[in-house]
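Comment thread on ticket #2218

A.B. wrote:
> Attaching the input chain for the structure job we discussed in standup.
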Amino acid sequence: MVGLRGVGKTVLLNQIAEDAEANRLIALRIEASEQRSLPSMIAPQLRSALIRLSNQEAVRALAQRALRALAGFASSLKVTYQDIEVGLDADPEPGLADNGDLGIDLQDLFEAVGVAAKADNSCVTLFIDELQYVEKEQLAALITALHRDAQRRLPVTMVGAGLPQLRGAMGNAKSYAERLFDFPDVGPLSSSDARIAISKPAQDEGVEIEAGVLDAIVSRTQGYPYFLQVWGKHLWDVAEASPITEANFIPASTRAIADLDQSFFLVRFDRLTPSEKKYLRAMAGLGAGPHRSGDIAQVMGRAVTSLAPTRAQLINKGMIWSPGHGDTAFTVPMFNEFMLRTVPTLEL
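C.D. wrote:
> Ran it. Output below, let me know if you need it in another format.
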Protein backbone atom coordinates (compact mmCIF):
# COMPACT_ATOMS: atom_id res chain seq x y z
CA MET A 1 0.00 0.00 0.00
CA VAL A 2 1.54 3.22 -1.15
CA GLY A 3 0.67 6.88 -0.73
CA LEU A 4 2.03 9.39 -3.23
CA ARG A 5 2.27 13.10 -2.73
CA GLY A 6 3.60 16.11 -4.54
CA VAL A 7 4.03 17.64 -7.97
CA GLY A 8 3.13 15.49 -10.98
CA LYS A 9 1.24 13.01 -8.79
CA THR A 10 -1.84 12.67 -11.01
CA VAL A 11 0.13 11.76 -14.12
CA LEU A 12 2.13 9.19 -12.19
CA LEU A 13 -0.99 7.75 -10.53
CA ASN A 14 -2.65 7.25 -13.92
CA GLN A 15 0.43 5.52 -15.30
CA ILE A 16 0.55 3.14 -12.34
CA ALA A 17 -3.15 2.36 -12.81
CA GLU A 18 -2.62 1.59 -16.50
CA ASP A 19 0.29 -0.71 -15.67
CA ALA A 20 -1.84 -2.42 -13.02
CA GLU A 21 -4.67 -3.09 -15.45
CA ALA A 22 -2.19 -4.61 -17.91
CA ASN A 23 -1.17 -7.08 -15.20
CA ARG A 24 -4.65 -8.36 -14.25
CA LEU A 25 -5.10 -6.00 -11.35
CA ILE A 26 -8.61 -4.63 -11.02
CA ALA A 27 -8.05 -0.87 -10.89
CA LEU A 28 -10.69 1.37 -9.31
CA ARG A 29 -9.94 4.94 -10.38
CA ILE A 30 -11.31 7.57 -8.02
CA GLU A 31 -10.77 11.32 -7.74
CA ALA A 32 -11.70 12.57 -4.30
CA SER A 33 -13.35 15.94 -3.85
CA GLU A 34 -14.52 18.18 -1.04
CA GLN A 35 -18.14 17.76 -2.13
CA ARG A 36 -18.40 13.95 -2.14
CA SER A 37 -18.17 11.36 0.59
CA LEU A 38 -15.83 8.38 0.42
CA PRO A 39 -18.73 5.84 0.31
CA SER A 40 -20.28 7.63 -2.67
CA MET A 41 -16.98 7.50 -4.55
CA ILE A 42 -16.02 3.88 -3.94
CA ALA A 43 -19.46 2.20 -4.16
CA PRO A 44 -20.00 2.59 -7.95
CA GLN A 45 -16.42 1.53 -8.67
CA LEU A 46 -16.72 -1.57 -6.50
CA ARG A 47 -20.02 -2.46 -8.14
CA SER A 48 -18.38 -2.48 -11.59
CA ALA A 49 -15.48 -4.60 -10.33
CA LEU A 50 -17.76 -7.12 -8.64
CA ILE A 51 -20.01 -7.47 -11.67
CA ARG A 52 -16.88 -8.21 -13.68
CA LEU A 53 -15.86 -10.89 -11.19
CA SER A 54 -19.36 -12.36 -11.01
CA ASN A 55 -19.25 -13.13 -14.73
CA GLN A 56 -16.60 -15.76 -14.04
CA GLU A 57 -18.00 -19.12 -13.03
CA ALA A 58 -15.21 -20.02 -10.61
CA VAL A 59 -15.78 -17.01 -8.35
CA ARG A 60 -19.41 -16.16 -9.11
CA ALA A 61 -20.78 -17.13 -5.70
CA LEU A 62 -18.15 -15.13 -3.82
CA ALA A 63 -18.55 -12.12 -6.08
CA GLN A 64 -22.31 -12.19 -5.63
CA ARG A 65 -21.88 -12.31 -1.86
CA ALA A 66 -19.66 -9.24 -2.14
CA LEU A 67 -22.41 -7.58 -4.20
CA ARG A 68 -24.85 -8.35 -1.37
CA ALA A 69 -22.38 -6.78 1.04
CA LEU A 70 -22.24 -3.70 -1.18
CA ALA A 71 -26.05 -3.54 -1.23
CA GLY A 72 -26.18 -3.62 2.56
CA PHE A 73 -23.33 -1.09 2.78
CA ALA A 74 -25.05 1.41 0.46
CA SER A 75 -28.49 0.99 1.99
CA SER A 76 -27.41 1.33 5.61
CA LEU A 77 -25.15 4.34 5.05
CA LYS A 78 -27.39 6.30 2.70
CA VAL A 79 -29.01 8.07 5.64
CA THR A 80 -25.62 9.39 6.77
CA TYR A 81 -24.06 9.89 3.36
CA GLN A 82 -26.95 11.05 1.24
CA ASP A 83 -24.82 11.32 -1.91
CA ILE A 84 -24.50 7.53 -2.27
CA GLU A 85 -26.00 6.55 -5.63
CA VAL A 86 -25.29 3.06 -6.89
CA GLY A 87 -27.39 0.49 -8.69
CA LEU A 88 -27.93 -2.58 -6.53
CA ASP A 89 -27.54 -5.91 -8.30
CA ALA A 90 -28.39 -8.07 -5.30
CA ASP A 91 -30.51 -7.96 -2.18
CA PRO A 92 -28.62 -7.16 1.03
CA GLU A 93 -27.56 -10.07 3.23
CA PRO A 94 -28.72 -9.31 6.78
CA GLY A 95 -25.77 -8.70 9.10
CA LEU A 96 -23.25 -8.19 6.27
CA ALA A 97 -21.82 -4.65 6.04
CA ASP A 98 -25.15 -3.15 7.08
CA ASN A 99 -24.54 -1.78 10.59
CA GLY A 100 -24.67 1.83 9.48
CA ASP A 101 -21.19 2.44 10.96
CA LEU A 102 -18.69 3.25 8.21
CA GLY A 103 -15.71 1.98 10.21
CA ILE A 104 -17.30 -1.46 10.69
CA ASP A 105 -19.16 -1.77 7.39
CA LEU A 106 -16.20 -0.83 5.19
CA GLN A 107 -14.12 -3.57 6.83
CA ASP A 108 -16.83 -6.15 6.11
CA LEU A 109 -17.24 -4.92 2.54
CA PHE A 110 -13.52 -4.96 1.76
CA GLU A 111 -13.20 -8.40 3.30
CA ALA A 112 -15.96 -9.79 1.06
CA VAL A 113 -14.36 -8.11 -1.97
CA GLY A 114 -10.94 -9.46 -1.01
CA VAL A 115 -12.19 -13.04 -0.66
CA ALA A 116 -13.68 -12.89 -4.17
CA ALA A 117 -10.55 -11.33 -5.66
CA LYS A 118 -8.31 -13.92 -3.98
CA ALA A 119 -10.36 -16.75 -5.46
CA ASP A 120 -9.87 -15.11 -8.85
CA ASN A 121 -6.09 -14.74 -8.31
CA SER A 122 -6.48 -11.02 -8.92
CA CYS A 123 -6.07 -7.87 -6.83
CA VAL A 124 -8.51 -5.01 -6.35
CA THR A 125 -6.58 -1.75 -6.12
CA LEU A 126 -8.05 1.64 -5.32
CA PHE A 127 -6.26 4.46 -7.15
CA ILE A 128 -7.42 7.58 -5.31
CA ASP A 129 -6.25 11.01 -6.43
CA GLU A 130 -6.57 14.11 -4.21
CA LEU A 131 -6.74 11.84 -1.18
CA GLN A 132 -6.26 14.82 1.15
CA TYR A 133 -9.90 15.78 0.56
CA VAL A 134 -11.25 12.67 2.31
CA GLU A 135 -12.50 13.68 5.75
CA LYS A 136 -10.69 12.38 8.81
CA GLU A 137 -13.39 9.95 9.99
CA GLN A 138 -13.79 8.48 6.51
CA LEU A 139 -10.03 8.30 5.98
CA ALA A 140 -9.69 6.43 9.27
CA ALA A 141 -12.32 3.92 8.14
CA LEU A 142 -10.50 3.41 4.83
CA ILE A 143 -7.15 2.84 6.54
CA THR A 144 -8.70 0.40 9.03
CA ALA A 145 -10.42 -1.60 6.28
CA LEU A 146 -7.20 -1.86 4.26
CA HIS A 147 -5.31 -2.85 7.40
CA ARG A 148 -7.75 -5.66 8.09
CA ASP A 149 -7.39 -7.04 4.56
CA ALA A 150 -3.61 -6.82 4.85
CA GLN A 151 -3.71 -8.80 8.10
CA ARG A 152 -5.86 -11.46 6.42
CA ARG A 153 -3.66 -11.41 3.30
CA LEU A 154 -6.59 -10.47 1.11
CA PRO A 155 -5.74 -8.68 -2.17
CA VAL A 156 -7.39 -5.31 -1.66
CA THR A 157 -4.99 -2.39 -1.56
CA MET A 158 -4.61 1.28 -2.40
CA VAL A 159 -2.35 3.68 -4.25
CA GLY A 160 -3.18 7.23 -3.21
CA ALA A 161 -1.96 10.62 -4.34
CA GLY A 162 -2.36 13.91 -2.56
CA LEU A 163 -0.81 17.20 -1.53
CA PRO A 164 2.03 17.38 1.00
CA GLN A 165 -0.27 17.44 4.04
CA LEU A 166 -1.46 13.90 3.21
CA ARG A 167 1.11 12.16 5.39
CA GLY A 168 0.05 14.16 8.45
CA ALA A 169 -3.64 13.70 7.69
CA MET A 170 -3.28 9.93 7.51
CA GLY A 171 -1.24 9.86 10.68
CA ASN A 172 -3.89 11.89 12.46
CA ALA A 173 -6.62 9.58 11.18
CA LYS A 174 -4.82 6.42 12.33
CA SER A 175 -1.56 6.47 14.27
CA TYR A 176 -0.27 3.33 12.54
CA ALA A 177 -0.83 4.73 9.01
CA GLU A 178 2.81 5.72 8.56
CA ARG A 179 3.84 2.12 9.26
CA LEU A 180 1.19 0.72 6.96
CA PHE A 181 1.95 2.91 3.93
CA ASP A 182 4.98 4.17 2.05
CA PHE A 183 5.05 7.90 1.29
CA PRO A 184 7.45 8.61 -1.58
CA ASP A 185 7.69 12.26 -2.61
CA VAL A 186 6.91 13.19 -6.20
CA GLY A 187 8.45 16.64 -6.40
CA PRO A 188 9.53 19.11 -9.09
CA LEU A 189 11.67 17.88 -11.95
CA SER A 190 15.41 18.26 -11.60
CA SER A 191 17.05 20.98 -13.69
CA SER A 192 18.37 18.44 -16.19
CA ASP A 193 15.01 16.67 -16.53
CA ALA A 194 13.16 19.98 -16.87
CA ARG A 195 15.50 21.03 -19.70
CA ILE A 196 14.86 17.74 -21.48
CA ALA A 197 11.10 18.13 -21.04
CA ILE A 198 11.27 21.40 -23.00
CA SER A 199 14.08 20.72 -25.47
CA LYS A 200 13.38 17.16 -26.62
CA PRO A 201 9.87 17.72 -28.05
CA ALA A 202 11.24 20.71 -29.98
CA GLN A 203 14.23 18.72 -31.24
CA ASP A 204 11.89 15.98 -32.41
CA GLU A 205 10.33 18.62 -34.68
CA GLY A 206 13.71 19.86 -35.88
CA VAL A 207 13.73 22.98 -33.67
CA GLU A 208 16.55 24.02 -31.35
CA ILE A 209 16.20 26.12 -28.19
CA GLU A 210 19.08 28.24 -26.97
CA ALA A 211 20.66 27.14 -23.68
CA GLY A 212 19.88 30.50 -22.07
CA VAL A 213 16.19 30.07 -22.81
CA LEU A 214 16.16 26.62 -21.23
CA ASP A 215 17.89 28.00 -18.14
CA ALA A 216 15.36 30.82 -17.89
CA ILE A 217 12.38 28.46 -18.16
CA VAL A 218 13.77 26.09 -15.53
CA SER A 219 14.40 29.01 -13.18
CA ARG A 220 10.98 30.56 -13.76
CA THR A 221 8.95 27.36 -13.42
CA GLN A 222 11.06 25.82 -10.63
CA GLY A 223 10.67 22.50 -12.43
CA TYR A 224 6.90 22.35 -11.79
CA PRO A 225 5.66 20.00 -14.56
CA TYR A 226 2.45 21.84 -15.45
CA PHE A 227 4.24 25.19 -15.61
CA LEU A 228 6.82 23.64 -17.94
CA GLN A 229 3.97 22.64 -20.24
CA VAL A 230 2.50 26.16 -20.18
CA TRP A 231 5.84 27.84 -20.90
CA GLY A 232 6.66 25.33 -23.63
CA LYS A 233 3.30 25.93 -25.34
CA HIS A 234 3.61 29.70 -25.39
CA LEU A 235 7.28 29.63 -26.34
CA TRP A 236 6.38 27.49 -29.34
CA ASP A 237 3.50 29.79 -30.28
CA VAL A 238 5.55 33.02 -30.28
CA ALA A 239 8.68 31.66 -31.99
CA GLU A 240 8.74 31.98 -35.79
CA ALA A 241 11.95 30.15 -36.59
CA SER A 242 14.68 27.90 -35.18
CA PRO A 243 16.55 28.42 -32.98
CA ILE A 244 14.20 29.74 -30.31
CA THR A 245 16.01 32.63 -28.63
CA GLU A 246 15.88 34.70 -25.49
CA ALA A 247 13.98 37.34 -27.48
CA ASN A 248 11.12 34.83 -27.69
CA PHE A 249 11.23 34.09 -23.96
CA ILE A 250 9.93 37.50 -22.82
CA PRO A 251 6.64 37.54 -24.79
CA ALA A 252 6.17 33.83 -24.10
CA SER A 253 6.52 34.46 -20.36
CA THR A 254 4.00 37.30 -20.50
CA ARG A 255 1.50 34.99 -22.16
CA ALA A 256 2.27 32.09 -19.82
CA ILE A 257 1.72 34.20 -16.69
CA ALA A 258 -1.53 35.62 -18.05
CA ASP A 259 -2.66 32.09 -18.89
CA LEU A 260 -1.93 30.85 -15.36
CA ASP A 261 -3.57 33.90 -13.79
CA GLN A 262 -6.82 33.32 -15.68
CA SER A 263 -7.00 29.57 -15.10
CA PHE A 264 -4.67 27.71 -12.77
CA PHE A 265 -4.34 30.43 -10.11
CA LEU A 266 -7.79 32.01 -10.44
CA VAL A 267 -9.59 28.70 -9.88
CA ARG A 268 -7.81 28.40 -6.55
CA PHE A 269 -8.31 32.06 -5.63
CA ASP A 270 -12.07 31.93 -6.25
CA ARG A 271 -12.46 29.18 -3.62
CA LEU A 272 -11.11 31.43 -0.87
CA THR A 273 -13.01 33.34 1.77
CA PRO A 274 -12.03 36.98 2.48
CA SER A 275 -10.13 35.96 5.63
CA GLU A 276 -8.26 33.25 3.71
CA LYS A 277 -7.33 35.71 0.97
CA LYS A 278 -5.99 38.10 3.56
CA TYR A 279 -3.88 35.35 5.15
CA LEU A 280 -2.39 34.36 1.78
CA ARG A 281 -1.77 38.01 0.87
CA ALA A 282 0.17 38.43 4.11
CA MET A 283 2.21 35.34 3.25
CA ALA A 284 2.85 36.62 -0.25
CA GLY A 285 4.17 39.90 1.10
CA LEU A 286 6.87 37.95 2.93
CA GLY A 287 8.05 36.23 -0.26
CA ALA A 288 7.88 32.74 -1.73
CA GLY A 289 8.34 31.04 1.65
CA PRO A 290 8.17 28.94 3.66
CA HIS A 291 7.35 31.34 6.49
CA ARG A 292 6.92 31.03 10.21
CA SER A 293 3.32 31.25 11.37
CA GLY A 294 4.35 33.93 13.82
CA ASP A 295 5.77 36.11 11.05
CA ILE A 296 2.51 35.90 9.10
CA ALA A 297 0.51 36.76 12.21
CA GLN A 298 2.79 39.74 12.87
CA VAL A 299 2.19 41.12 9.37
CA MET A 300 -1.56 40.82 9.96
CA GLY A 301 -1.37 42.31 13.45
CA ARG A 302 -3.01 39.22 14.94
CA ALA A 303 -2.18 36.54 17.48
CA VAL A 304 -1.01 33.23 16.04
CA THR A 305 -3.73 31.34 17.89
CA SER A 306 -6.48 33.52 16.42
CA LEU A 307 -5.31 32.65 12.89
CA ALA A 308 -5.07 28.90 13.49
CA PRO A 309 -8.58 28.15 12.11
CA THR A 310 -7.87 30.10 8.92
CA ARG A 311 -4.56 28.33 8.46
CA ALA A 312 -6.24 24.95 8.99
CA GLN A 313 -8.91 25.80 6.40
CA LEU A 314 -6.25 26.74 3.86
CA ILE A 315 -4.40 23.48 4.49
CA ASN A 316 -7.65 21.54 4.01
CA LYS A 317 -8.24 23.36 0.71
CA GLY A 318 -4.76 22.44 -0.48
CA MET A 319 -3.55 26.04 -0.71
CA ILE A 320 -0.75 25.76 1.84
CA TRP A 321 1.07 23.07 3.76
CA SER A 322 3.43 22.78 6.68
CA PRO A 323 6.93 21.57 5.72
CA GLY A 324 7.93 21.73 9.39
CA HIS A 325 6.43 22.57 12.77
CA GLY A 326 5.28 26.18 12.71
CA ASP A 327 6.25 26.66 9.04
CA THR A 328 3.80 27.50 6.26
CA ALA A 329 4.40 27.28 2.50
CA PHE A 330 2.37 27.58 -0.68
CA THR A 331 1.60 24.23 -2.31
CA VAL A 332 2.43 25.54 -5.81
CA PRO A 333 5.22 27.88 -6.99
CA MET A 334 4.50 31.47 -8.00
CA PHE A 335 1.23 31.74 -6.08
CA ASN A 336 2.80 34.46 -3.96
CA GLU A 337 3.39 36.50 -7.13
CA PHE A 338 -0.21 35.97 -8.24
CA MET A 339 -1.49 37.19 -4.87
CA LEU A 340 0.61 40.34 -5.13
CA ARG A 341 -0.72 41.02 -8.62
CA THR A 342 -4.33 40.27 -7.72
CA VAL A 343 -4.45 41.89 -4.28
CA PRO A 344 -2.13 44.92 -4.40
CA THR A 345 -2.63 45.78 -0.71
CA LEU A 346 -3.19 43.71 2.41
CA GLU A 347 -6.48 45.47 3.20
CA LEU A 348 -9.28 43.33 1.78
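A.B. wrote:
> Thanks. Noting for the ticket: The chain has 15 helices and seven strands.
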